[in-house]
Amino acid sequence: MQKKLTLTVDAEVYEGLRRTIGPRKISKFIEGLVRPHVLLPNLESAYAEMARDKRREKEAMEWAEITFKDLRP
Question: Would you list the domain boundaries of the chain?
Answer without folding.
Answer: 1-39, 42-73
